[in-house]
Specification:
Elements lengths: L15 H21 L10 E4 L3 E4 L14 E4 L4 E6 L8 E6 L15 E5 L3 E2 L4 H13 L3
Antiparallel strand pairs: 1-4, 1-7, 2-3, 4-5, 5-6
């Protein structure tokens, strides 16, 4: 056999799917570990998130009476809140937290920067990544 007839050997290249799989593992592992980590103690200045739609009392309701609020407002699911006063120890203690991420008043939802009295079971310290991924997949494949 003639050497000129043989095809030149190329160096083996790694398949693209293995590179993509390694990249996915590198990106998704910290997210998964963060979502599975247990909640720590809630301290002043921590960001917490609403775990559902809840009717919560305003800390100073008189400030919002002129815009239509009596003494409560509706907290949206996944609303970010900043803890302004550290909670007292106890099973049914209330936390004073300030609404973040809103820039206009939309009654009956909580006004921007309003301080709320929130029960500890109404909040979580980290958003649920797995639940968000599931909700995104449902929306993606849901027929319109």
């Amino acid at each position: 056999m003639n050497r000129s007839e043989q095809s030149p050997r190329r160096s083996p290249e790694p398949p693209l799917w293995s590179i993509a799989a390694a990249g996915a593992v590198i990106v998704l592992t910290p997210m998964l570990l963060y979502s599975l980590a247990p909640d720590g103690p809630i301290r002043e200045g921590d960001t917490v998130f609403s775990n559902g739609s809840h009717k919560v009392p305003l800390f100073q309701p008189d400030r919002y009476r002129e815009v239509g609020y009596k003494s409560t407002c509706l907290l949206d699911p996944k609303d970010p809140l900043i803890v302004t006063h550290a909670p007292a120890e106890g099973p049914d203690d209330m936390i004073i937290a300030q609404v973040q991420g809103k820039n206009r008043i939309e009654w009956p939802f909580c006004p921007p920067q309003a301080e709320l009295l929130v029960q500890r079971n109404y909040i979580t310290q980290q958003p649920s990544l797995l639940q968000d991924l599931r909700d995104g997949m449902v929306r993606l494949f849901k027929p319109s």
